[in-house]
UniProtKB/TrEMBL annotation:
Function of the protein: Catalyzes the transfer of the alpha-amino group from S-adenosyl-L-methionine (SAM) to 7-keto-8-aminopelargonic acid (KAPA) to form 7,8-diaminopelargonic acid (DAPA). It is the only aminotransferase known to utilize SAM as an amino donor.
NCBIfam families, sorted: bioA (TIGR00508), PRK05964.1 (NF004624)
UniProt entry keywords in alphabetical sequence: Aminotransferase, Biotin biosynthesis, Cytoplasm, Pyridoxal phosphate, S-adenosyl-L-methionine, Transferase
Top-level division of the source organism's lineage: Bacteria
Cofactor(s) the protein needs: pyridoxal 5'-phosphate
Species the sequence originates in: Micromonospora profundi
Name the UniProt record assigns to this protein: Adenosylmethionine-8-amino-7-oxononanoate aminotransferase
Protein encoded by which gene: bioA
């Protein structure tokens, strides 16, 4: 198909994320991707500032990851996971348990981040029921979070300001504390800590679990918060028999400078969700990890009633194993620190630019916040003119490049962000 034919068919039939039909902004046709570059159908090459939404940490067409998929394709691409098991899935579960914070020993392989959050919630409700607390079926969280687009995860996104405000009257009513104040380096605010503890204590008798994104709130606002808040949550949940879920779908596998963001706080959750970079962005796969106590509790009274058709897909597990192998064998921490330094050098000068209210960098994540809603079409086009792919939202222009992005391409991304700020 020609690029024009692709666009015409796209416009006629295809629904893209968070768009109306027809979409206000026409998508760009991408024809291939290699290293940190996306190649558009018109020949333009863009440095990917988004890692395809946090996922492509090693870049595209990585020879080790390509080989893992090809090799697995030669054995089996998919088999059902009910009653069958295979080496790629077992190896992946073992590696995840080795890498994860202490105490998480059982792994449920899901097919997307949202589903892994559904499974986490189901585990917690079912565990509370199993140990004789059926009334504990609500979740608590802080505002400004994002945990996915299926119904139960939507209920713990911010029901007022968030993407799912449309559904406020339909979703299960959960318990919300305010957004954590301050940034990553700002010490915990005492009044906030008291309110957080109070929210959990007041509702403890009806809470199955607290769920949060540790340290970085991603799609809900790209906020960074002090790890001390996680320690507070760990203590108060433990004291009241409430489970703690960390959603590490965006933050997992090194993005914030530690393998998992929980490590900044030195605490372990009872349940953890991972996805996105799990397969290096190659195939759709996510996982929910839990403690033996939860697994035992649930299993004493029945089964965990969840079983996606594509659970434990061998191709996805094989490429996840290869991606985690690359991470473990390489200097991912050094790469993330270098990307962070490049983003800091490139983005800090934007502080003070008219319209810019904040610039923040943590790990390999850079965020520029504006005092107005970004003009998505104009900002994206301006970045593309600089040879950079970005996807701003609301008042945020942000980037989380592949860990393998070199210094010259980091400078190019920063120039793309600056151009988007000026245009958007
Ligand atoms: N949780 C977090 C923290 C996320 O950032 C996302 C996706 O952006 C999700 C859950 C949902 O994952 P998925 O889009 O794979 O369903």
């Amino acid at each position: 198909m020609t690029p024009e034919e692709i666009l015409a068919a796209d416009r006629a039939h295809v629904w893209h994320p968070y768009t109306a039909l027809p979409s206000a902004n026409q998508p760009y046709v991408v024809s291939s991707a290699e290293g940190v570059r996306l190649r558009l159908a018109d020949g333009r090459e863009l440095v990917d500032g988004m890692s395809s939404w946090w996922a492509a940490i090693h870049g595209y067409r990585h020879p080790v990851l390509d080989a893992a998929v090809t090799d697995q394709l030669g054995r089996m691409s998919h088999v059902m996971f009910g009653g069958l098991t295979h080496e790629p899935a077992v190896q992946l579960a073992r590696t995840l348990v080795e890498l994860a914070p202490e105490g998480l020993e059982h792994v449920f392989l899901a097919d997307s981040g949202s589903v892994s959050v559904e499974v986490a919630m189901k585990m917690c409700l079912q565990y509370q029921r199993a140990i004789g607390r059926p009334q504990r079926r609500r979740l608590a969280t802080w505002r400004g979070g994002y945990h996915g687009d299926t119904f139960h995860p939507m209920s713990v996104c911010d029901p007022e300001g968030g993407m799912h405000h449309l559904w406020g009257d339909v979703l299960p009513r959960q318990v919300f504390a305010p957004v954590p104040p301050g940034g990553f380096a700002d010490p915990p605010d005492e009044a906030y800590v008291a309110a957080l503890v109070d929210a959990v204590e007041r509702h403890a008798d009806e809470l199955a679990a607290v769920i949060v994104e540790p340290v970085v709130q991603g799609a809900g606002g790209m906020r960074f918060h002090h790890p001390g808040y996680l320690r507070v949550l760990r203590e108060v949940t433990q004291a009241h028999g409430v489970l703690l879920i960390f959603d590490e779908i965006a933050t997992g596998f090194g993005r914030t400078g530690t393998m998992f963001a929980a490590e900044h706080a030195g605490v372990a959750p009872d349940v953890m969700c991972v996805g996105k970079a799990l397969t290096g962005g190659y195939l759709t796969l996510a996982a929910t990890l839990c403690t033996p106590e939860i697994a035992r509790g649930i299993s004493a009274t029945g089964v965990l009633a969840h079983g996606p058709t594509f659970m434990g897909n061998p191709l996805a597990c094989a490429v996840a194993n290869a991606s985690l192998g690359l991470l473990r064998a390489g200097d991912w921490a050094g790469q993330v620190a270098r990307v962070g330094a490049g983003l800091r050098a490139g983005l800090e000068p934007l502080r003070g630019t008219p319209g810019v209210t904040d610039v923040r960098v943590l790990g390999a994540i850079g965020v520029v916040q504006l005092d107005h809603e970004v003009d998505l079409g104009a900002a994206t086009a301006a970045a593309i003119d600089r040879g950079v792919w970005l996807r701003p939202f609301r008042d945020l222009i942000y980037t989380m490049p592949p860990y393998v992005t070199d210094d010259a391409d980091l400078a190019r991304i920063a120039a793309g962000v600056a151009a988007a700020v000026a245009a958007g």
